[in-house]
Amino acid sequence: MEIINFIGENIQMVYIIILSIFVGVEVIGKVPAVLHTPLMSGANAIHGVVIVGAIIVMLNSSPDNYLALILGTLAVFLGTLNVVGGFVVTDRMLEMFKKKK
Are residues 47 and 89 in the same domain? Predict the structure, then answer.
């Protein structure tokens, strides 16, 4: 019952999330295959914001709030993996354009 009340009180946020999903699918669906790799590697690098946000949440949570600390640690770990993966993909992509000796 709490979830239904939350949705009822925040129905405008729900509409914005649904609309952003449709817009995101349309925008990504129109990207040519040639641009997919650089677009995704750049999007992965944006996860640095997730890392900073997770660190801020962990700093502001109380030491006995284990759920916030575990989720924050998991977000930092997975965000870091995504950032490193994005840079690795970009590096491999740029290696393809170097002249062979």
Answer: yes
Residue 100 in any domain: the answer is no
Which of residues 16 and 46 earns the better pLDDT score?
Answer: 16
What pTM, to 2 d.p., does this model score? 0.59
Q: Which residue, among 51, 39, 40, 45, has the nearest Cα to 79 in the 3D structure?
A: 51
Report the alpha-carbon distance of residue 58 to residue 14 in Å, rounded: 26
Q: Cα dist. 12→5, 17, 78, 85 in Å?
A: 13, 9, 30, 35
Instruction: Report d(CA 10, CA 18) in Å as an integer.
Output: 13
d(CA 25, CA 11): 21
CA–CA distance, 43 with 86 (Å, rounded to integer): 8
Same domain, 74 and 57: yes
Do 69 and 46 lie in one domain? The reply is: yes
What is the maximal distance between C-alpha atoms in the chain? Answer: 67
Q: What does the pLDDT average to over 74-96?
A: 84
* Pair of tokens at residue 82: 């995504």
